[in-house]
Amino acid sequence: xxxxxxxxxxxxxxxxxxxxxxxxxxxxxxxxxxxxxxxxxxxxxxxxxxxxxxxxxxxxxxxxxxxxxxxxxxxxxxxxxxxxxxxxxxxxxxxxxxxxxxxxxxxxxxxxxxxxxxxxxxxxxxxxxxxxxxxxxxxxxxxxxxxxxxxxxxxxxxxxxxxxxxxxxxxxxxxxxxxxxxxxxxxxxxxxxxxxxxxxxxxxxxxxxxxxxxxxxxxxxxxxxxxxxxxxxxxxxxxxxxxxxxxxxxxxxxxxxxxxxxxxxxxxxxxxxxxxxxxxxxxxxxxxxxxxxxxxxxxxxxxxxxxxxxxxxxxxxxxxxxxxxxxxxxxxxxxxxx
Amino acid sequence: xxxxxxxxxxxxxxxxxxxxxxxxxxxxxxxxxxxxxxxxxxxxxxxxxxxxxxxxxxxxxxxxxxxxxxxxxxxxxxxxxxxxxxxxxxxxxxxxxxxxxxxxxxxxxxxxxxxxxxxxxxxxxxxxxxxxxxxxxxxxxxxxxxxxxxxxxxxxxxxxxxxxxxxxxxxxxxxxxxxxxxxxxxxxxxxxxxxxxxxxxxxxxxxxxxxxxxxxxxxxxxxxxxxxxxxxxxxxxxxxxxxxxxxxxxxxxxxxxxxxxxxxxxxxxxxxxxxxxxxxxxxxxxxxxxxxxxxxxxxxxxxxxxxxxxxxxxxxxxxxxxxxxxxxxxxxxxxxxx
DNA sequence: GGGTCTGTAGAAACCGGTTTCTATTCGGGC
DNA sequence: GCCCGAATAGAAACCGGTTTCTACAGACCC
Lengths: 338, 338
Description:
Two copies of one chain form a homodimer.
Chain A: H1 6-13, H2 17-24, H3 35-48, E1 66-69, H4 82-96, E2 100-104, E3 122-126, H5 131-140, E4 144-147, E5 156-160, H6 162-175, E6 181-184, H7 196-211, H8 227-237, E7 242-245, H9 248-261, E8 270-274, H10 278-282, E9 288-291, H11 294-309, E10 320-322, E11 325-327
Parallel strand pairs in A: 1-2, 1-3, 3-4, 4-5, 5-10, 6-7, 7-8, 8-9
Antiparallel strand pairs in A: 9-11
Helix pairs in contact in A: 1-2, 1-3, 4-11, 6-7
Chain A binds a DNA duplex through residues 5-7, 15-19, 21-22, 25, 27, 31-34, 37, 52-53, 56-62, 119.
């Protein structure tokens, strides 16, 4: 009924705790167990449905086999759609590498708590935007990787190449004849801090536009603009023919407001958004997106973390950057001369 | 740097481990500590930034202060939008009650693993649809509550009142003159098993329609129908004026296909969906929904679990049912006489 | 036959906490 | 001054595992 202990298994098999532990952990380092005894022990384990406590075993053993996952596991209400995908990829890769991923729900806005509150071999920090918490983790000396977020001195960071993604989006639009391309920025703050991508995309937009000799839109700066005001100003007044949106939620909001204001997509303006997902494919017009490949960032992050844990030298100076991908659908079209 | 132990705190304060433990746990049961000594200990704790290991303390103490959360924390790719909301509500309420919620990512489709793999006071199982895993948990004797899913003999279950929700939806449509109302069912299987709501909504639809003397649609049964085929048959051929969709993802798929087929919502048919969320408000037409209030189910679930853990008698025979809510938006309209 | 090496497995220490048991000091009643 | 109980705090046991240390049996060699 209740969970049974190593002692109970040992008693049932008529051996000592140590022998059971050795058999279960396949300890062959200078030791061996007679096949017959091994059989008896394994039978007892099976009969009692024994499984060791995942955490108590971490006390004595050097390797815990545990990876702690920090951060908003329960995604925020209006959070991006890509978050779950990324975390899932990371977890699956760690699982495949034989690690058990574990997390405790500690509110990041609560009293400054340590993370992790248990012993583990490494830490994954998805979508980080809490510098204080990160600094504490950094000081702990544990190997950690910040996935889709920045790291401090001792950790690694894997992020998306926002410059390349912006370039992908703008090239796509410029190739199709667009010259006045507005950017709808996000000013959502998570726990009082912005996600790095907000500033990165905003800045890349300015640079890439300038590089093409085009004027950036008025509203790509730091102050918040309502969707309706944005569309009135940029599309109706300034005559922009295309909009790049910070993420899917903003793109959806823009699409809704455009419909309400009598603006058609892509006839009156083209729309392209960061993040891809089920919704982008389901809505009409289907949204052209800059996808953030979850598989790629997940795999790269886990590879990096495993290297750190193995003590191999890794790139810590600069974040590893994952390429973004253009997914062309119906919301962008060519304009023939202006 | 590395995490420090109770012993280190004790040494620094010049006292024994037991005294530190007593001070930190506010042990006053027949014991007391001189204010001056308490001060010194607390100072040492602060200086060393000490926090006890969350799991190791569970070994000896009767109360662990831990709640395990089973299930798909990393939600499935195309999963419903309501899942995160519900889990978050549950976690926040447990947190408020002083419990630490913890989860390990164990693939539910993997080798049959026990859950939880550590000692805890109770278990939360959100969105359950894995009977085998649940049966094991049930046998463990731990207090547990199945949130938005069914339980076995020893656990409690809190689900939504699907019958009432279907009634809400159909009454809304019938009041507005609809008589031919089709139902678009889901046949998604999660880990080989269906979520209880699939059968519940399907069945309730049949009953409520019959109760109103109306004929249910052809396609509300168990076999899968493509959205296009569904719309051709039900709307174009059979002349249905309204559709009730199993969830938001299916509603989105229906909206997309309708647009592609030249069917307008709500002019050509009204659409109402289960689940509510950001997307329902963002798309056009805004979707009329049967909302599944996350706060209500979260609060009720936690209340129930805490009662079980306190040894109080609770309702185990039947699931507790949470009322669903009608959110009227733009996708449904009245038809004036037929 | 004695010494040594190897295979096998139990005993015991240990991890980091909580709880129980025990010891000492102090104050008060006589 | 002595006895006793309350207040205070250390010592030690314990939780459930892993790892190290130790012990014993048998094989092999000389």
